[in-house]
Amino acid sequence: MGKIKLKDISTKAPTNLKKKDTKEDVKKLARKIGELQHKLYAEKKHSLLIIIQGMDASGKDGATKNVFASCNPSGIDAYSFKKPTELEFAHDFLWRCHKLAPAKGNIMIFVRSHYEDILIQRVHNWIDMERVEKRMNAINAFEELIAFDNNTTVLKFYMHISPERQLEKLQERIDEPEKQWKHNPGDWEERKLWDQYMEAYEYAINESTTPWHIVPCDSRWYRNYFMANIVLETLEKLNPQLPHLEAKED
What we know:
The chain is α/β, with parallel strands linked by helices. It has a single domain (8-237), classed as Rossmann fold, CATH 3.40.50. Helices cover 48% and strands 13% of the residues. It is built from 10 helices and 5 strands, in the order H-E-H-E-H-H-E-H-H-E-H-H-H-E-H. The chain has helices at 19-43, 60-67, 86-89, 95-98, 120-123, 129-150, 163-175, 185-191, 194-207, 220-238, and strands at residues 47-54, 76-80, 107-111, 152-160, 212-216. It has a 5-stranded parallel sheet. Helix 2 packs across helix 10. The mean pLDDT is 96.
């Protein structure tokens, strides 16, 4: 299989889909996801770790809100990765991830993730490539460990937005009052490093032993539809069942 080049993958929705119909389909998919998540939680045999990575304004939070809209809060959680705390900095970079990995029956969503430690740190030259490579090996080992040792399925989504669409979304955070709470001047500075980030993302995607799904994100409605289909398909393969009381022997 050849190396993935993000510039060769479209960020747009297929022209044969209708926005209105697809948005209705997302609601149906979300309900089915909710039904299976309920069974997953009750059965407690498998867990699901969902990793969502992407540039600023690519729609990580919006996708989470829409795809998992019908899930039971008791069996699902999300964690938004920020700058590590002093305590987290005092440990290895995966320490904070191990304690957040989902228990059997649960879905955990990482909004950003352990991949930040080979993305932003690489782009800003806070670590060298030798450390990037060692951390990549550790990430692969971590994901393989929880898959093997705890029946955790790892789903990874790269939110593939074009620089033109990102510019529009960042500008909305200045122009539209209801979105101004999202504005962060630092996002504009990170945007200047777009090419470096694409190189870092391609490395992470191509060196992963657990495959990534590249999500076209220029249209929010298609982003949600694309992700929801993959999540539903994954849960259907796990085929969780509601436990029943065992029949008493005579």
